[in-house]
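Final report, Chapter 2: Outcomes

The project's central promise was a pipeline that accepts a single protein chain and returns its three-dimensional structure in a standardized token representation, suitable for archiving and comparison. That pipeline is now operational. To close this chapter, we reproduce one record exactly as it appears in the project archive, with the input sequence first and the structure output second.
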Amino acid sequence: MAAEATAEGTAARPGDHGKAGGRLAWYGDSAYGTGDLRAVIASAGHQAVIKPGPLLPAVEGGFTIDDFTVDAAGGTVTCPAGITRHLTARNAVIFGAACRDCPLRQQCTTAQAGRTLHLHEHDGLLRAARADWAAGPGLREDYSTHRPHVERAIAQVATWRGRRLKLRYRGVTKNHAWLKRRTAALNLRNLLGKGLARRDGAWVLAT
């Protein structure tokens, strides 16, 4: 099955995992690794093979958000020094005065008011994605194997003779329809190039 570029710019194809369970594997680089997109993929029961974005510490070489332990059920966050604070209604956690005499302060924050974290709505998904990526080579090897093909498919949709295409219409509905038509045409062209033919009243593809 040819890869299909979606409106978000990622691409989907049946992966090895999907052959057994009927799931689709979605491939994309870190630009597509947002919590919102991961949530959509997960809600559909699919697998996201997307490289997580890099974490930037507040202090060079210091702690990142993954060094803080989040208890989603309890609504608390614990810092590397063992200090626990409750999440606010806006999904933030303020350590404030607890940072004042903390021996780990220089590895954590330069803010005079202490460290404040703002957790993404889908923080759990993002943490799990980073943990899965670091856990073993399997996910990274899958990504490296298929991502170049996905990026090439996206490039076919977004460019024409080496030039970036611009949207042709006003409004999401018309442009979405145009994208679907273009994607279908490119998929058909690619399949024809791989030997798609009409035989005995049916479409067949040489394997």
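Archive annotation: The CA atoms of residues 67 and 133 lie 16 Å apart.
This record, like all others produced under the grant, will remain available to the consortium after the project formally closes.
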